[in-house]
From TrEMBL:
<dbReference type="Pfam" id="PF02525">
    <property type="entry name" value="Flavodoxin_2"/>
</dbReference>
<dbReference type="InterPro" id="IPR003680">
    <property type="entry name" value="Flavodoxin_fold"/>
</dbReference>
<protein>
    <submittedName>
        <fullName>NAD(P)H-dependent oxidoreductase</fullName>
        <ecNumber>1.-.-.-</ecNumber>
        <ecNumber>1.6.99.-</ecNumber>
    </submittedName>
</protein>
<keyword id="KW-0560">Oxidoreductase</keyword>
<comment type="similarity">
    <text>Belongs to the NAD(P)H dehydrogenase (quinone) family.</text>
</comment>
<feature type="domain" description="Flavodoxin-like fold">
    <location>
        <begin position="16"/>
        <end position="195"/>
    </location>
</feature>
<dbReference type="InterPro" id="IPR051545">
    <property type="entry name" value="NAD(P)H_dehydrogenase_qn"/>
</dbReference>
<dbReference type="InterPro" id="IPR029039">
    <property type="entry name" value="Flavoprotein-like_sf"/>
</dbReference>
<dbReference type="GO" id="GO:0016491">
    <property type="term" value="F:oxidoreductase activity"/>
</dbReference>
Amino acid sequence: MSEAKSGATPLEGDGKRILMILGTPKSNSFCHALADAYLQGARTQGHVVRQLRLGELRFDPVLHDGYDQGQSLEPDLLEAQRHIHWAEHLVLVYPVWWGGLPALLKGFFDRVFLPGFAFKYRGNSALWDKLLSGRTADLLVTLDTPPWYFRWIYGAPAHRQMTRTILGFSGIRTRRLAEFAPVRPSNEAQRQRWLRRAATLGTRA
């Protein structure tokens, strides 16, 4: 995976090691603008930021046989694992589609957060070790659904999946979950306010 393809952007400074994962397959969306704003905010504090743009990586997002058989990791996914091990803090920027994660982002977790990398079961018991413990995460999430409706009517399934059953299961503590919604009817003034908010989050990384 080249730096150009991965979006890996080492920045000057001796701050925190941050890995930003842009989890949309679209080549241009408001998620990209939010990611850029957060990155710029983090840069002002001297943090070292690397970026993975999943839409630019080459990998099969389908875990064809579950964990019953091994599935060789593509070079881009092997490098993604190295970036995750390197990072102290993860930033995930993604939209909610159909109440859940985009298929590409879910497929990334299916392929990368494997037993022996993200978690390890203790024998035949239901207990497990969280192999990515010690890391934190910020989530920047766009929706077209109003946040109150997503939370109280739908039950916020995407948020629970990400914070509890993916990151939390692996030992990564979600520090902030910031919603930017509803995007579709928003105007330019609202989007500029959201971008300023994302930049502020970056300064607090």
